[in-house]
Amino acid sequence: MDVVLSPEEEAFRQEVRAFLAEKLPADIAEKTGNGFRISKQDHVRWQKILHEKGWIAPNWPAELGGTGWTPMQKHIFDEECALAGAPMVIPFGVTMVAPVIMKFGNEAQKERFLPRILSSDDWWCQGYSEPGSGSDLASLRTKAVLDGDHYVVNGQKTWTTLAQHADWMFTLVRTQDTGKPQEGITFLLIDMKSPGISVHPITTLDGSAEINSVFLEDVRVPVENRIGEEGKGWTYAKYLLGHERTSIAAVGRSKAQLRKLKGIAKVELAGGKPIIEDPDYARRLAQIEIDLLSLESLVLRTLYAESEGKPVGAEPSFLKIKGTQIQQGLTELLMEAIGPYAAPYQPEAFRDEGWNEEPVGPDYGPALAPLYFNWRKASIYGGSNEIQKNILAKMVLGL
Ligand SMILES: Cc1cc2nc3c(=O)[nH]c(=O)nc-3n(C[C@H](O)[C@H](O)[C@H](O)COP(=O)(O)OP(=O)(O)OC[C@H]3O[C@@H](n4cnc5c(N)ncnc54)[C@H](O)[C@@H]3O)c2cc1C
Which residues line ligand 1 (CB under 6 A)? Predict the structure, then answer.
């Protein structure tokens, strides 16, 4: 199901493949390929290798450290990285806050933050959601009050992914209570080492600790860490969300999962025959492959339109819905393929260093149920799929 490539694009694919074969550490590829968890150190190790090559930020303009690739090259790169088992580049810095700093930040902010995002010396997290303010984000209550040349911030953020590792958090805070809720929101960059910040883990369904509650008590944030104008944060926040949703489609990663699924479905038996020969299973697998192929075309169309400066419309919402439905569908088929071996839940079989017992069932078994449970999140984060459907209903159908 490959798109047709020009000879130059095919040569580029080979270049990326050769780079990955030489530079992607085998231990990291092995962990990613088997669905095991990747530590922060592993992520940083890989991101620094990409940075050294100049390939960490395909979405940035070349003059600021981006690659200058065409949309097709970006797509090939993503796909090859996923197929080789490279961990995804954590998006909060490179993909999310950097475009906002580039477009709305001042020169001092660009000089201060962008190089450290490229080199992975600063890790970022996203402080948008709050208890009671997720879909209805404009209702957020974390308050920032101006005190001389500082804002004093009080409130609580929640679901903050990887906050426990972050050096910085980009946040939305309320600086005004009157007028429309959207008008009183300001975009602040907060140093996670500031006194008054505490991070508390929230355990997810698969037993991991990737999300957190973040409490802010009288946290002093220099005014120089405000992006753009006070009260205009909603505009910057929406710009960022467009970038977030397009990247959530993750076609390359789904292609890698599909390849893995086909391999497993050829050896796992149902009624004495490989499950891939079961008509119902085969039909569902084919449907996902067709959906993925369609999604790939749409992602490419969107990326080309963006690169030509055409305004982005409802596409990110559609990509988000479809991409996450495919991701969840793949995890369902993966888990179904191993049948009863999905039942013994054995996170220790892939998480704990030094665990030397045999897993129950095949080697690839223990990761599949946690993967299934973990990916239930995909239809919620980045703006839930129900809300994306509302956006499509308004923008496309005019309802
Ligand atoms: C694993 C994970 C990681 C996350 N990481 C981050 C992060 O790093 N930073 C961050 O800021 N946020 C993060 N989030 C938060 C995420 O963006 C919110 O969970 C999401 O926007 C939904 O908000 P909510 O949880 O408050 O649900 P609610 O808004 O309470 O919604 C509950 C349900 O009701 C539905 N619903 C609500 N309103 C409507 C409506 N008007 N029409 C139809 N249906 C509706 C929703 O779709 C959902 O199914 C993360 C979430 C998860 C699950």
Answer: 125-129, 134-136, 159-161, 211, 377, 380-381, 383-384, 386-387, 390
How far does residue 381's CA lie from ligand 1's centre (Å)?
6
Q: What are the tens digits of pLDDT across the range 356-395?
A: 777 888 888 888 888 899 999 999 998 899 999 999 999 9
| Residue 386: active-site member | no
Q: What pLDDT is attached to residue 245?
A: 66
| CB 227, CB 104: distance < 8 Å | yes
Q: Which atom of ligand 1 is nearest to the CA of 162?
A: 8
Q: Angle CA(148)–CA(152)–CA(155) in degrees, nearest 5?
A: 165
Q: What is the pTM of this model?
A: 0.93
**204: which residues sit within 8 A by CB, 6+ positions away?**
210, 211, 373, 374, 377
- CB of 185 closer than 8 Å to CB of 175: yes
Q: For residue 343, what pLDDT is reported?
A: 85
CB neighbourhood size of 350 (10 A):
19
Asked which of 94-98, 203-207, 246-250 is least confident by mean pLDDT, the reply is: 246-250
Taking CA atoms only, the protein residue closest to ligand 1 atom 35 is 386
pLDDT in tens, 299-346: 888 888 877 888 878 888 999 999 999 999 999 999 999 999 988 877
Distance, CA 135 to ligand 1 centroid (Å)?
5
